[in-house]
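As described in the Methods, two query proteins were run sequentially through the folding procedure within a single session, without resetting any intermediate state between them. The first query and its resulting structure tokens are shown here.
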Amino acid sequence: MKIEMKFIVILLLFSAMISLSLKQQPPPPQAKVKFLVGKVEKQPRGVIKWTPLKFNTAVFEGDRIKTGLNSRVELDMPDGTIMKINENTIFDVTELKTPERDQEDKMRFTVWIGNIWAKFKKVVTGRQDRYIESPSAVVAIRGTTIEMDVDLQQKTLVRVEEGLVSVKSKDVEGEVMVGSNQETIVEKGKAPTAPKSTSPGQGEEGKDDQKAFNFRVDLDKFVFTDPAVLTTGIHVRGKLPAGARLFADGQPIPVQPGGHFEGFIRVKEGLNRINMEAELNGERRSKKVNVFVNTIKPEIRLSTPLIAGFYNRRDYSLSGGVFDLTPGDKIKVFINSEEVTEVSGRGSFNRTIILKEGPNTIRVTAKDRSGNTFEISQRLFLDTVKPILTITEPAQPVHFIYEPPPPPRSGRTRLEQVVRGIIIDPEPSSKIKRVVINGKEVQPNSDGTFETRVYVERGTNRLNFYVEDLAGNILRDNSRVIRVP
């Protein structure tokens, strides 16, 4: 018995130590969704189903991200690194470790297909590992701004805007160091190509570079809800090779001598597909920039008005329509934080709500894809309990009044009887609305007691009580009889 007790004590101590250790363990490292537009989905490790990725949610090690057409998502990494995952891309957060939790500082990502842009924080120690992989290449980062593009043939383009990276093939020997304003290409089964400048230089090398110049477009965000942008336009900036000219949908954008550009582009409500076209020495390069302007809030129109008050039915049917005039917008409708429907542009909804006894707050919210919201809120009170009536006088169900016959030709045929009692409206109380006794309305006292007089005649007189509360619960009682011989 002592051995068993000793074993149990040791087991409890061990369990407590494990529990304490788990409580002290920092939460797992995570990236945060900083920006999102369009259809972006996430697939956690070991899960088959794809679920929509939402703004300001977390992305963990092992998560896979997929972006659709005209879609994009930006992630903030634990160390401040920014990653932009562009449209039609499949991207894995392969490894995400932090010194606080894992005693390691590692980040490893995989681009299966598509395009990403990343700005990494500078790596300051040899124990910090930063890698981006593709089906054909491995890129080691030392703190840089980089763009990677992977096509259907698994060819990988690595372009460095600033910094230095090491690029290797996954299949054959070969490594190249790619510096600022340089790029390399890795094809499946081949070594990386020699680094090539991405901006015009001098001599023969400069002539080749001019044939393949590229440019960068920077936007603070890709969804705009401020109506001012319809007047001022959206602010755009970036970098071009020196001497290049730039047009946005045919509108010239000022370019500084060093190649930096900055300006405003006119936009309209809804999705704007802006064609950015640069020209240098007769060569043209273009980029498509998609921005969504959504300055109009959705609206809700209820078919059955949401009216505050008292109710005595648990089911409350709510229906109506929702619409948004922003072209291409999608609206979700929520009733008390539960999603009811999602419509494109306009649609209808219907939902039966089960009320609980007492106060209920009903909140109908419409939210569009940019976060603009419209809400209708009302407070309903459910009371399904009937009032309780207690009659104290006459005390008996059948009450006799012995009254001698009146004198001849007196004309006196009616008598008076005092009726007393108490009315209680049980919780949840909507309070008493009306009390009627034999057709006569009676006003109870604040404590529920009442007293009145009723006329009775010779023979059988029945007392009819009618009690109603504000919720519409009705009590009827005609069990009391007064007989006058």
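Immediately afterward, the second query was submitted; its sequence and tokens are:
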Amino acid sequence: MRTDDQPGRTSHAVALDVRGLSVDISLRLGTVRAVDNVDLCARKGETLAVLGESGCGKSLTAKAITGLLDPGVRVSSGQVRLDGADLLTMNPKQRRTVAGHKLGIVFQDALTVLNPVYTVGSQIDEVFRIHEGVSRREAKTRSIELMERVGIEDAARRYHAYPHQFSGGMRQRIVIAIAVALKPSVLIADEATTALDVVVQAQIMDLLRELRSEFNMAVVLITHDLALVAKEADEVVVMYAGNVVEKGRVTDVLRHPQNPYTRALLEAALPAKASRERPFASIPGGPPDLDSIPRGCVFKDRCGFAQQVCADERPVLRLVAAGHACACHFVNGD
């Protein structure tokens, strides 16, 4: 039985169920495993955070789910079930149809998503016209309503504006409007507020929270920001070197972290008062290169508690409490 399926889980319906997802990258000297046997479960009306440092496989996992992998990168195994249908078994046309209606994604940089030579209104219109076949008049009406819903003032006039005529926060609202236009079951926000100042970041997260409730969506929040996870998430998956090292309800994981990597992240993000004798905490080194991931525990080279078994054997996720799982040799699981 998977750790997601254990007693103590929320009763909210599952919207996205990822099982055993592995992603390989083809390089000149061979193939490397970038995401290794990842399980995650996002539930309607809740936010699942995928947490970890840069280079830990978070965004690659999101790209594999959405079918946006670059050439030379492929899903080697696993299932990605969206409202019960496995996206990985569909042909490209089927996947585009299902994902277009049921899966939205918001990236970090809105300028890479929005086409600079088209008005924002026409780009929102396109969603309704392609997926629902509505008339230009109806698409425009719905686009303006949606712009108003995501907080664009004077939407009827700004419908005709171009992306460069909006601030960064307003552009991100336009991208969110496009992502939620068809009221998807799942919205993936990949570092969606990282480039914004803290005030705008808070406004965007307020908007996502409102839309999640209004549309009963599952939100998957890809981030390295622990404060954001603590405030916004219901559940959290902690990734390191392409592996899930800890997962559970956010209150359990952040209050009682079991994996040394999770504890190190918390200590670095929420340090005690520093002094000359006791400087701020940090995690030594960095995540391993994809072609040199340790055979045993992926975190062993940066872990102060590592022993020989950590070099010899890869720890598996096991329950440490109801709904709380950890991959570490020195955790007493249930």
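Residues 107 and 295 are 33 Å apart (CA to CA). We note this only descriptively and draw no conclusion about the first query from it.
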